[in-house]
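Before relying on records like the one below, remember that each one covers exactly one chain. Contacts with other chains, cofactors or solvent are not represented anywhere in the record.
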Amino acid sequence: MSHPMTQEVIKNLQELQAFATRIYNLGKRIICLKGDLGAGKTEFARNFINNFSDLSLKVTSPTYNIVQIYELGGKKIYHFDLYRIENAEELREIGLEEALENDICLIEWPEIAEFFLKSYKNEIINLKIEIIDENSRKISIN
């Protein structure tokens, strides 16, 4: 998997799991997940987070809580869903700034957080997930 722009077609959950492991192995701390509702952002996050644990964790979408925090393998992992965030002040209230400083962050709907993210551009991988059909997704990496 090379940069700056790569595309990959994922045809099933096993391929998504392998893809999430490859992204995990790149060692970047901040993963920005873009894509329509139902594209598979949370499914990717679930597979990515489970790389930190021997257990198969129940990772759910933080849509209503906005953030879920996992402490695994001596690391703190923040899973943000910014879909319902309306302004930057709310991002401060949910702890995005602090999480970005040291922790692993998976951020769904990251567009509203661009101001905070620009300082970390060397630590970010952007994934855009597009629906091809019921099971297949095209993921663009940059």
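Strands lie at 6-10, 30-35, 67-72, 75-81, 104-108, 124-131, 137-141.
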